[in-house]
TrEMBL record:
<feature type="transmembrane region" description="Helical">
    <location>
        <begin position="274"/>
        <end position="295"/>
    </location>
</feature>
<feature type="transmembrane region" description="Helical">
    <location>
        <begin position="143"/>
        <end position="161"/>
    </location>
</feature>
<keyword id="KW-0472">Membrane</keyword>
<feature type="transmembrane region" description="Helical">
    <location>
        <begin position="181"/>
        <end position="201"/>
    </location>
</feature>
<keyword id="KW-1133">Transmembrane helix</keyword>
<feature type="transmembrane region" description="Helical">
    <location>
        <begin position="365"/>
        <end position="387"/>
    </location>
</feature>
<feature type="transmembrane region" description="Helical">
    <location>
        <begin position="76"/>
        <end position="98"/>
    </location>
</feature>
<feature type="transmembrane region" description="Helical">
    <location>
        <begin position="36"/>
        <end position="55"/>
    </location>
</feature>
<feature type="transmembrane region" description="Helical">
    <location>
        <begin position="307"/>
        <end position="324"/>
    </location>
</feature>
<dbReference type="InterPro" id="IPR001046">
    <property type="entry name" value="NRAMP_fam"/>
</dbReference>
<keyword id="KW-0812">Transmembrane</keyword>
<dbReference type="Pfam" id="PF01566">
    <property type="entry name" value="Nramp"/>
</dbReference>
<feature type="transmembrane region" description="Helical">
    <location>
        <begin position="330"/>
        <end position="353"/>
    </location>
</feature>
<feature type="transmembrane region" description="Helical">
    <location>
        <begin position="110"/>
        <end position="131"/>
    </location>
</feature>
<feature type="transmembrane region" description="Helical">
    <location>
        <begin position="222"/>
        <end position="244"/>
    </location>
</feature>
<protein>
    <submittedName>
        <fullName>Mn2+/Fe2+ NRAMP family transporter</fullName>
    </submittedName>
</protein>
Length: 396
């Protein structure tokens, strides 16, 4: 494999994972929790980044060294466990994709004034076209990279316009006034929960970047992916904090849009349209690609026609959104579920890391195992608490 090609694939995988994480939910959660916690939200971001890195490094390394997809690894740990994990991931990915398509529709509505449903339909068609082209993997990598740079660049502009109290944000990141468990679960679940943490790892596997000889590069790519998503999160947090600290109120119906509008007027509002559309469409592509990658190994026919199954996945998500609308309560529930999927999937990967029949003579670093186990225990406890506290309120 040529050096440039390999480097491009590694970067593409990092951006695929990061842009899968940066969706409509990511934008809304970040601004919503900033309005609630102000500068103390910095602590939540710091904790979530540490958890994200620990989870992602473990998962990507184990997938690379085993040279198997997550569902096949899970079946190696316990027969049938891979099918269970695949069902969880596909259901979560499908529900989120309906919301992602809706977010793309809202982005085009802001930009061009067309109806959100028509915007969703056009966005669904564009996402499908990415997989229709002959070299779908390369097209997906390139699209994710361009969209990622555009989103970060525009958010940086709005952050400077909002003039946030950076000193206070830094201080409260390490000494918060309040610690919000639900916010931590939501952020970690939204960044590496469900299908998201597997997006880049499965992409590298498909591109042939695997085995012990590639572990150093895979690890760097996994941390880069979290870095890209975290940079976007920090800039968006600071932009929202700049607005909140001025005493301005965010619109609860669309918190991120109001941040951009209050910071930079109508130009800012149009910028939000670009960001919302880019974030949503890359999440549509990432969710569809990764969700289907969880079922394609179960059957030779599924493997042969996996590209068309991805296209069908996107088409179905788009159709549901256009006909029914966005099922908000289901999406919020799946957000909490994604936080719970993480300790299950990471726990399975950690067990697999110490099974010779899966990883051969590879020795997983002890510190990574300990870090991973801590994340599994803490996230399981916090996710159960969050679901117990929030879901009854949601469906009351």
């Amino acid at each position: 494999m040529k050096k440039e090609s390999k480097a491009s694939i590694l970067l593409g995988a990092a951006f695929l994972m990061a842009t899968s994480a940066i969706g409509p939910g990511f934008l809304t959660q970040t601004t919503h929790f900033t309005s609630l916690l102000a500068a103390s939200f910095g602590f939540v971001i710091l904790v979530s980044i540490l958890f994200d890195i620990g989870a992602q490094m473990n998962v990507w390394r184990i997938i690379a060294v085993s040279e198997k997809r997550a569902q096949d690894i899970a079946n190696g740990v316990l027969p049938g466990l891979g099918i269970f994990l695949a069902i969880l991931v596909v259901i979560g990915g499908l529900a989120f994709n309906i919301g992602n398509v809706g977010g793309a529709g809202l982005g085009l509505n802001v930009l061009f004034g067309i109806s959100p449903k028509m915007g969703a339909l056009l966005s669904g068609i564009i996402a499908i076209l990415v997989f229709v082209v002959r070299e779908a993997g390369k097209a997906m990598d390139r699209f994710a990279q361009i969209a990622g740079f555009v989103m970060i660049g525009l958010t940086v502009y709005v952050m400077f316009t909002a003039s946030p109290p950076v000193g206070e944000a830094v201080a409260k990141t390490f000494a918060p006034d309040k610690i919000d468990i639900i916010a931590i679960v939501t952020l970690v679940g939204g960044t590496v929960g469900g299908y998201i943490t597997f997006a880049g790892a499965h992409r590298l596997l498909d591109a042939g970047i695997k085995g012990k000889e590639n572990l150093a590069e895979v690890t760097r790519s996994s941390v880069s992916a979290i870095g890209i998503a975290s940079i976007m999160r920090i800039f968006l947090f600071l932009a929202a904090l700049g607005i909140v600290s001025q005493g301005l109120k965010l619109n609860p119906a669309n918190p991120p849009a109001s941040v951009f509008q209050l910071a930079a007027g109508n130009i800012g509002y149009k910028m939000f349209g670009v960001i919302m559309w880019s974030a949503a469409l890359t999440s549509v592509i990432g969710a569809a690609y990764t969700s289907v990658s969880f079922i394609r190994t179960f059957n030779a026919t599924l493997e042969k026609y996996h590209k068309w199954i991805i296209i069908g996945f996107i088409a179905f998500s788009t159709l549901v959104l256009v006909i029914i609308g966005q099922p908000v309560k289901v999406l919020i529930f799946v957000g909490a579920l994604n936080g719970l999927i993480l300790p299950i999937s990471l726990g399975v990967m950690l067990i697999a890391a110490h099974k010779k029949k899966i990883v051969g003579d590879y020795k997983h670093p002890v510190w990574m195992t300990i870090f991973g186990v801590l994340i599994v225990v803490i996230m399981a406890g916090m996710s159960i608490y969050t679901i117990g506290q929030e879901i009854p309120k949601l469906f009351a």
